Structures are given as C-alpha cells and as structure tokens.
C-alpha cells in the first residue's frame, strides 16, 4: 500500500493507491484510502483492513463532533495531536490499531500548508513531503531532490508523476491507479493525473 504527500506554496497534494490487498492477493480496486476531516484537513490511512476503516471513521466523527460542540474546526496541527493521542492510547490497550497515517491540511486564514506523518507506534512528525509503505523506499529520494518550498501545483503534480513512474519501474507490485487529492484554502478536491 502506498501513501504520498507533498506540500506546496499554499496547498498539500496527496496520493494513495486504490488497491485493497492482503498478502499477495488483490481483493478490491477503487478503494479511497482517505477521509475528509473537515473542509481543510484530509487524512490518508493504510494498515490492517478492519483497523483502518474503524479508526478513520472514529477520527472523522470525533473531529466533526468537535466542530458541532465548539463551533469551529480543528487546525491541522490540532488534528494530528488528537490522532497521535488516540494512537498512543490504543497502543497501550489489549487491541491496538495497526494504522499508518498522513494528515494534510491548509490553514484557511493564512494559506499555510501542513503535512504530518504518523505511524502505528504513535510517532508524529511534521514534514514537507512524506511517504508510507514501500513507496518510501523508492520515492523519498526523488522528493528530496525535486521538492522546494515554493512549489506550484503544476510542479507538485510533476513531482508526483516522477514518484509514480519510479514505482512503476522499480517496484515489483502492480499499482495501476492512484487517488490524488489537493487540499488548499478553498477545500479538498480530487484531480486526475
């Protein structure tokens, strides 16, 4: 499973493969491995099938409950802190969630993009670009070479295409389709590449 995230000048570009697999068997294609937490925050998830769905829905519902109770949305940083706390609590239980996440968002007032990388051990790091799964072996060097702080949307899409091309050449698994989304101050939208 592959999750990729790239921050740009005023947006976050994310991509996830649309394959649901267990071991060497592809069970389903067309799976969207992301959840919109609010208008400007998106969470991508990967891991054990039941854990990912249950945890993603739990986080999505609780961020919406926070908005209803308090009349405002959580910031990207606040969402990542909340998710990290929930993963840490789960880790100390008898049945921890095995979920890896990317949380991307943009502050609607300032337009500042943020991308957080979280793993199943509740590590949380703010990064300019990130990857989960086998993609990190192949794509991190490409993102490291071509990423820059003032990346435009076109440049970020070009960088993402380079990463996906690298996966097609070097990775033994067949990941033909990706769900690509852009999060900016106007909201979340899916794009075709």
From TrEMBL:
Q: Which UniProt keywords apply?
A: Cytoplasm, Nucleus, Proteasome
Q: Does the keyword Nucleus apply?
A: yes
Q: What GO biological process term is on the record, naming one?
A: proteasomal protein catabolic process
Q: Which Pfam families match?
A: Proteasome
Question: In which domain of life is the source organism classified?
Answer: Eukaryota
Q: What is this protein called?
A: Proteasome subunit beta
The cellular component terms of Gene Ontology attached to this UniProt record, alphabetical and capped at eight, are:
cytoplasm; nucleus; proteasome core complex, beta-subunit complex
How it assembles, according to the record, is:
The 26S proteasome consists of a 20S proteasome core and two 19S regulatory subunits. The 20S proteasome core is composed of 28 subunits that are arranged in four stacked rings, resulting in a barrel-shaped structure. The two end rings are each formed by seven alpha subunits, and the two central rings are each formed by seven beta subunits. The catalytic chamber with the active sites is on the inside of the barrel. Component of the proteasome complex.
Known function: Component of the proteasome, a multicatalytic proteinase complex which is characterized by its ability to cleave peptides with Arg, Phe, Tyr, Leu, and Glu adjacent to the leaving group at neutral or slightly basic pH. The proteasome has an ATP-dependent proteolytic activity.
Q: Where in the cell is it found?
A: Cytoplasm; Nucleus
Which family does the similarity line name?
Belongs to the peptidase T1B family.
Q: Is Cytoplasm among this UniProt entry's keywords? A: yes
Give the source species: Chytriomyces confervae
Highest classification ranks of the organism: Eukaryota, Fungi, Fungi incertae sedis, Chytridiomycota, Chytridiomycota incertae sedis
């Amino acid at each position: 499973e592959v999750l990729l995230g790239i921050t740009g000048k005023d947006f976050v570009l994310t991509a996830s493969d649309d394959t649901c697999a267990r071991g060497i068997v592809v069970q389903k294609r067309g799976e969207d491995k992301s959840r919109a937490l609010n208008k400007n925050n998106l969470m991508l998830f990967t891991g054990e099938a039941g854990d990912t769905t249950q945890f993603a829905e739990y986080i999505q519902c609780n961020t919406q409950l926070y908005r209803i109770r308090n009349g405002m949305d959580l910031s990207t940083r606040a969402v990542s802190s909340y998710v990290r706390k929930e993963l840490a609590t789960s880790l100390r239980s008898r049945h921890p969630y095995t979920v890896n996440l990317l949380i991307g968002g943009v502050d609607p007032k300032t337009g500042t993009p943020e991308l957080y990388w979280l793993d199943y051990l509740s590590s949380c790091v703010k990064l300019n670009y990130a990857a989960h799964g086998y993609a990190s072996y192949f794509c991190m060097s490409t993102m490291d070479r071509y990423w820059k702080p003032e990346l435009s949307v076109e440049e970020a899409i070009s960088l993402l295409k380079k990463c996906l091309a690298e996966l097609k050449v070097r990775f033994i698994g067949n990941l033909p389709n990706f769900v690509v989304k852009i999060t900016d101050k106007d909201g979340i939208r899916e794009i075709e590449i």
